[in-house]
Specification:
The structure holds 2 protein chains of 2 kinds. Chain A is mainly alpha-helical. Chain A is built from 4 helices and no strands. Chain B has one domain: Alpha-D-Glucose-1,6-Bisphosphate, Chain A, domain 4 (2-Layer Sandwich), CATH 3.30.530. In chain B, helix 1 runs antiparallel to helix 2. The chains are: A mainly alpha, B alpha+beta. Chains A and B meet through helix 2 of A and helix 4 of B.
């Protein structure tokens, strides 16, 4: 989604208020949980749905 | 480790008392007080430098009570370094030094009326795909910390665990 929106992680961090470190960890899939408020702000900034940034892997 | 520290404390207390009583002079007391003041001053001056890490963590430095623990984090070492810097700030510790090349961090706990504070060292190592963090907490001046070193670890680890919920 970041590539589609031509946005860098730093810019996303500034717009969502989530630190770059936390977004990097989110990208690696190593977070324990994501708050709805965080998900909402990311979706708002990227203008997308939660399903566009979350993927279930078996 | 704590039992050994208490033994040291008790042993030195009794030896000192014995020397003072046997000498019947105040000279021994002055020497002891002077030694303590010099050591405390040196430690307070040296605490903010990573170069003195071996001094504070040396097992021969019995005047600084120590605690260490090693744990694994599931993120790469460079990310773990940045994460720990964040968590240190959230834990109320003061960042003193951070060396990204060596992946070492030095933080200090706050000084209060009942404590000179502790030095908290982090060393991040990547080994066979695992990221290991070594946590060391050492008292600035004190052979026994009444669990403050352990409390520092508990506080830090709780904040670290919480920080993985974003």
């Amino acid at each position: 989604m970041l590539a589609k929106r031509k946005m860098q992680l730093k810019e996303l961090a500034e717009k969502t208020g989530v630190s770059v470190v936390n977004l990097s960890i989110l990208k690696t899939g190593k977070v324990r949980a994501v708050r709805f408020s965080t998900l909402e702000s990311i979706c708002h900034v990227l203008a997308c749905q939660p399903g566009d940034i979350l993927e279930y892997r078996d | 480790m704590q039992k050994r520290t208490v033994k040291h404390f008790v042993a030195i207390f009794f030896i000192t008392t014995f020397v003072i009583l046997m000498s019947g002079k105040l000279l021994a007391l002055y020497i002891l007080a002077g030694f303590n003041v010099c050591l405390l001053t040196f430690n307070l001056l040296a605490r903010r430098s990573l170069a003195f890490k071996p001094w504070f963590l040396s097992k021969f430095n019995i005047f600084s009570a120590k605690f260490n623990h090693e744990f694994e984090v599931e993120i790469p070492a460079d990310l773990a370094f940045d994460k720990i810097l964040e968590v240190v700030a959230e834990s109320g510790f003061k960042l003193a030094k951070a060396d990204k090349d060596k992946l070492e961090i030095l933080a200090i706990s706050t000084t209060s009326w009942k404590s000179w504070g502790e030095n908290i060292y982090f060393k991040i190592e990547e080994n066979a795909g695992q990221t290991l963090v070594r946590f060391d907490s050492a008292a600035i001046f004190g052979m026994y910390t009444w669990g403050k070193n352990e409390d520092n670890y508990k506080l830090f680890f709780e904040k670290l665990e919480d920080s993985f919920t974003i």
